[in-house]
Amino acid sequence: MLYKYFSDDAIQYFDDSEYFTLKFTKLEDYNDPYEQSLAVDLAKANFNNVDYLIGLYQKEIYKCKGYLATFFSNRPDITPMWAHYGNEQRGFVIAINEKMLVEYLKDRGLEKISDFKIDNVDYRDGIDSEFQKDFEHHNERGKGYWYRAVNEYLLKAFYFFKQDCWKYEEERRLIIKDNHKILFCKDNNMLLRLPKSCIDYIIFGSKTNDIVKEKLQVVFNQPMYEFRISRSNVESYFIDSEIYTYCDISKDLVIRVPNCSECGEPIEDSYMNKGMCFWCYARNMD
Ligand SMILES: [Zn+2]
């Protein structure tokens, strides 16, 4: 599942049609200065025929620049993501079914590996020592090998490496060739139109207001969950409209857990027979 975090005011960009749009941007517009760093130290590389190889490398880099990206997270319960992108839990998260998204892209003619790529972001600080070795090894084997390896690597390095400090985002990224006809331009934004049937469910934050929640229901007409942080153990959980509680919905897996009959919070084993969490039980005792 792909999770996209939105601030509450982003609700204005969704309507009740059968489609919704995702915004694509050039990587240089993103917030990480490490983006598009190639994580190979050419100066230290042990090359034959240096000038020729650097020339080729630069030519390939130029080719790699022609993609636009949109980002998702692999988890819907990352507190700093809710803080940063979800406007301190006032916003919402859309759960997009990756299989359906990819099928849709393929049906619309994105068939070649050079048309689009979806992958996890690889977090690292400093150069990629594995690739640095490969880079030199392929150079010894001959230009053909080197060329293929570099070609494959550059796309990965250019679009799917980020500095280690962003690891908490657990980012998964989709890139599409920027001149592909599936993308269209509106108000200076490059957009991808997707059917809402790609969306499996919606999550809103514990501070999302009722107007936004009602709009989410009308716009998406999908199951909705509320994201909450438990008072007892600071773990996160999700709660649906029937007040059933779920602990991990991130792996396409819904685990329903015993919950408090008053507030919905998951209950500890020792309070199971009381049917309430410690806090509600203590309040009722007053
Ligand atoms: Zn409770």
Distance between the termini: 44 Å
Low-confidence stretches: none
| Number of strand segments | 15
Strand content: 15-25%
Number of domains: 1
Instruction: Kindly state the percentage of residues in helix.
Output: 25-40%
Mean pLDDT: 84
Specify the number of helices: 7
Question: What report would you give on this structure?
Answer:
- This protein is an alpha+beta fold.
- The protein has one domain (2-229).
- Helix content is 28%, strand content 25%.
- The chain has helices spanning 50-64, 79-84, 98-107, 129-141, 143-160, 210-220, 278-285; strands spanning 2-6, 19-24, 67-73, 92-96, 116-120, 122-123, 161-162, 171-177, 183-186, 189-195, 199-204, 224-229, 236-240, 245-246, 256-257.
- A 7-stranded mixed beta sheet has the order 1-4-11-12-13-14-15.
- Helix 1 (50-64) crosses helix 5 (143-160) and helix 4 runs antiparallel to helix 5 (143-160).
- It is elongated and about 80 Å long.
- The model has no long low-confidence stretch (mean pLDDT 84).
- The structure holds zinc ion.
Question: Any chance you could write out the topology, listing elements then pairs?
Answer:
Elements: E1 2-6, E2 19-24, H1 50-64, E3 67-73, H2 79-84, E4 92-96, H3 98-107, E5 116-120, E6 122-123, H4 129-141, H5 143-160, E7 161-162, E8 171-177, E9 183-186, E10 189-195, E11 199-204, H6 210-220, E12 224-229, E13 236-240, E14 245-246, E15 256-257, H7 278-285
Parallel strand pairs: 6-7, 11-12
Antiparallel strand pairs: 1-4, 2-10, 3-8, 4-11, 5-8, 9-10, 12-13, 13-14, 14-15
The protein binds zinc ion.
Zinc ion (ZN) is lined by residues 260, 262-263, 265, 276-277, 279-280.
